[in-house]
Amino acid sequence: MLAVEQEFTYWLGDVQFGGKIDAIIRERSTGHSYVIEHKSTVQDTSAGSPYWSKLAVDTQLSIYLDAAAFALDIPVHGAIYDVLKRPQHEPKLATPADRIEYTIGKGCKACGGSAKAGEVTRGRGHTIVAFASSVEHPPCAECKGTGWKCDKDGVPQEPRPYANVRLTDETLDEFEERIVADIAARPDDFLQRAVIVRLESELPRMREELIEQVTLMRAAAASGLAPPNHSACSMGREMCGFWAACSGQADIDDEHQFPRGVAHPELVQINHRAA
Ligand code: SF4
After folding, report:
1. CA 20 to 30 Å from 205, out of 113, 156, 176, 270?
2. Ligand 1 center to residue 229 CA distance, Å?
3. Of 94, 64, 67, 97, which Cα lies nearest the Cα of 81?
4. 32 located within any domain
5. Are 119 and 131 in contact (CB under 8 A)?
6. pTM for the whole thing?
């Protein structure tokens, strides 16, 4: 491990770039160094998906590779990208009361127990299903008049909820257990790793693009313009925190909804150092 949480700044023309690299490592077997980048996403990260394709022109990655060489004097062969796919599981909720259905017994031939599920009473965290059986003969030992065959302990089997019915919400522990089991069963669907490289011939164009981007941002700022980037409004299942303002549903000057003065502490530190 050559560096961890490594901050950097470097100049490209009259533009100063800054940031923090998760880690830089050196592979013992080859002596090659790599930037390590940890990401989490809800996007499709399967092999060949657009997530990986886009990294070929990813600006942040280009900056990190240049930063390692220019600012930290560690020329790297590329970046090892570890991507954690955020589980999209939702807690399972109890089936709405009006959609709960119970198994229906066949009835008892011996005594005529009719095996009907009768009144259903729901209390806090429990459900009581009363038997509602009528018998044609004195109750037999097999079903005790319920029409439901007795189990080995002599207790009539009760009407059971259908397999797709839940009587209670999934608890937090059950939810966690289910997610952990799912990740353990198919880890490659949740953690992907790839090595991303930049060819020497690609770097000059990348740097030019970066400078162009900054030039455009400066020009926009000087003109009082703030061009929207609508391709980033929705990421995964969530909308950008400014969506309400950008879509005209809220006022950006509403400081209650869009509080001021909460810049990320790391950005504040970097800005102070750069000043
Ligand atoms: S909603 Fe967010 S991403 Fe979309 S234009 Fe507004 S600030 Fe940019």
Report:
1. 270
2. 6
3. 64
4. yes
5. no
6. 0.68
- Does residue 204 share a domain with residue 254? no
* Ligand 1 centroid, distance to 161 Cα (angstroms): 47
**Do 197 and 238 have their domain in common?**
no
242 lines ligand 1 (CB under 6 A): yes
Query: Digits of tens for pLDDT over the chain (275 positions)?
Result: 899 999 999 999 889 999 999 999 999 999 999 999 999 998 889 888 999 999 988 989 999 999 999 899 999 999 999 999 999 999 999 999 888 888 777 778 888 777 665 555 555 544 555 555 666 677 788 888 778 888 888 888 877 888 899 989 999 999 999 999 999 999 999 999 999 998 888 889 999 999 998 999 999 999 998 888 888 898 767 889 999 999 999 999 999 999 887 666 666 555 555 55
Please indicate whether residue 228, judged by its CB atom, sits closer than 6 Å to ligand 1: yes
Question: 214 with 239, same domain?
Answer: no
Tell me: do 66 and 12 sit in the same domain: yes
Cα 258 to averaged position of ligand 1 atoms, centre (Å): 13
Q: What is the residue range of 274's domain?
A: 228-275
| 181 belongs to a structural domain | no
Task: Please check whether residues 19 and 34 belong to one and the same domain.
Answer: yes
Instruction: Let me know if residue 196 belongs to a domain.
Output: yes
Residue 54 belongs to domain with CATH number:
3.90.320.10
Residue nearest atom 3 in ligand 1 by C-alpha distance: 233
Q: Residue 92 falls within a domain, yes or no?
A: no
Instruction: Give distance in angstroms: CA of 262 to centre of ligand 1.
Output: 18
Q: How far apart are CA 209 and CA 204, in angstroms?
A: 9
E-strand stretches of the chain: 3-12, 15-26, 33-41, 78-85, 117-123, 126-131, 191-196, 234-235, 238-239
